[in-house]
Amino acid sequence: xxxxxxxxxxxxxxxxxxxxxxxxxxxxxxxxxxxxxxxxxxxxxxxxxxxxxxxxxxxxxxxxxxxxxxxxxxxxxxxxxxxxxxxxxxxxxxxxxxxxxxxxxxxxxxxxxxxxxxxxxxxxxxxxxxxxxxxxxxxxxxxxxxxxxxxxxxxxxxxxxxxxxxxxxxxxxxxxxxxxxxxxxxxxxxxxxxxxxxxxxxxxxxxxxxxxxxxxxxxxxxxxxxxxxxxxxxxxxxxxxxxxxxxxxxxxxxxxxxxxxxxxxxxxxxxxxxxxxxxxxxxxxxxxxxxxxxxxxxxxxx
Length: 302
Description:
single chain; alpha/beta; TIM Barrel; 10 helices
């Protein structure tokens, strides 16, 4: 068994999806992470969207797993703004359960499902580092949300392998001079422990740039990581550039994950960045990652 490397693709059009999946395939990618925007899909369109991703990825013999985006409640909250409002939370879980149901039994799927959990908002209001009572409320809300999502997963898949992953979040408001409190490695470990290890983690290395945390802290904390999102930024915003070593900080220990045979590594770069990347450069980046190293910007092919 070997680690798998691939890329993220959003749904714009059937034709563009095929172009982007083909770029990753030609560059040596082996798996695709699909990112459908759930608020754009009614119940009838979820099945169609899953089918389109599977059809395109099947042409390139690449399995696909899903990282749904922006499920909305009737209040307009996105999934990473999950509040402690039970009705709001249930509407979001129902949306993801419909997606899981559409994936069940489909050939070509890979058994991972990534969610952001909740950013540090309660009732739509961002909290700061001094509001520890509200911080505890937000963590509690994330535990409830993931517990409901796990129950929905079990109702659909039973004991079949299908793993929910909690992704670490960037620091909201950092570039606006606010004092954000991102989910720390300790808080992620606390949430996973609450779920008795039935949820694992997706380590977004680009988000670490903004939270000033380090890969090594996740290793030392023993957080069960199954997937990474690899992308770079200048720490002011979540820009999703290619993960050049010159743009990446706090990545000591990342090589351990790049070479871990149970891992899935996803280049999560902006669509515009991908479309403007030379095919040979994309291949060089993926080859470097497969060798356990971040690529060098200084050698980039323009």
